[in-house]
Amino acid sequence: MIIAFAVFTIAILYLMSAYSYAFTRVGERDDELQAVSFGQQYMEQVRHQIRAGATSVSSVTQPIDAGYPMVGGVKNYSSASPPPQLPSPGNFTASGTMTGLGTGGLAPYDVLVTVSWTWGGNPRRVTLESIVQLE
Predict the structure, then answer these.
(1) 67 vs 15: CA distance, rounded Å
(2) Could you give the C-alpha distances from 9 to 3, 17, 30, in angstroms and in order?
(3) What is the spatial order of strands in the sheet that 60-63 belongs to?
(4) pLDDT 10s digits, 61-81
(5) Cβ(99)–Cβ(7) under 8 Å?
(6) Are 120 and 29 in contact (CB under 8 A)?
């Protein structure tokens, strides 16, 4: 019986650590998804700037949306009075580079967008790339 109790205790401890790990990964992937979305929006701005004749683009920042607390749940929620969101843990920074792919007035550009942020004290980043054809 003591052996069964020890095995049961080890299994419970393992499941508790897996639960904590899962919450951590959900938070990390949430930020990554937001970063990709922000990068795509920034890419659209860069496309419009290139088509308007820009030869360089500047970096932009946006606060990270922390969302709502996951552990306690959302209580007494109504569309008239949503619960307060958690404070932003930091900012996303998007920067872009554009490289001409040919010669002539309508040559396409290779646009590389990098979105960077800090999560859990560690630097993170996602990179998006697109070809922008001038019309």
Answers:
(1) 26
(2) 10, 12, 32
(3) 60-63, 91-100, 109-119, 122-132
(4) 999 988 766 555 556 666 666
(5) no
(6) no
